[in-house]
Amino acid sequence: MNSFQSRFQYYSKRKFFRFGVPFLLLMVGGSFGLKQFAQLRYTFSKKGTLTVEEAEKHGLLMKKPEEVTLEGEYEKVKGLDIDNWENIRGPRPWEEGTTPQAKAGH
């Protein structure tokens, strides 16, 4: 028992065993820990895109990519009057779905 205690005192005074060994253990152990956390990201992430059939199953109506074009959307936006508009605040959760303007009589 005495030899173990003397060895422990000998090594505990060395800088490598006081600072180097814990540092190396932290680096090596941390890399294994980060590997496990990074693996969770790829295990539970959804891969792929939403298909039309899946969207319809959830109640969403998707247009075909050929139906939506940049030029068509530009024509829709070009017809809007962006100079005359009114800022209307949406309802707060405690206002039961009615707009404040409707309550005030606007």
UniProtKB/TrEMBL annotation:
**Family as reported in the entry's similarity comment:** Belongs to the COX16 family.
Against PANTHER family, the record matches this protein to: CYTOCHROME C OXIDASE ASSEMBLY PROTEIN COX16 HOMOLOG, MITOCHONDRIAL, MITOCHONDRIAL OUTER MEMBRANE PROTEIN 25
One biological process term in Gene Ontology: mitochondrial respiratory chain complex IV assembly
What's the domain of life for this entry? Eukaryota
Q: What is this protein called?
A: Cytochrome c oxidase assembly protein COX16 homolog, mitochondrial
Major subcellular site: mitochondrion
One Pfam family for this entry, by name? COX16
Q: Where in the cell is it found?
A: Mitochondrion inner membrane
Give any Gene Ontology cellular component: mitochondrial inner membrane
Q: Which residues cross the membrane?
A: none
Q: How does it sit in the membrane?
A: Single-pass membrane protein
The alphabetized UniProt keywords are: Membrane, Mitochondrion, Mitochondrion inner membrane, Transmembrane, Transmembrane helix
Organism lineage: Eukaryota, Metazoa, Ecdysozoa, Arthropoda, Hexapoda
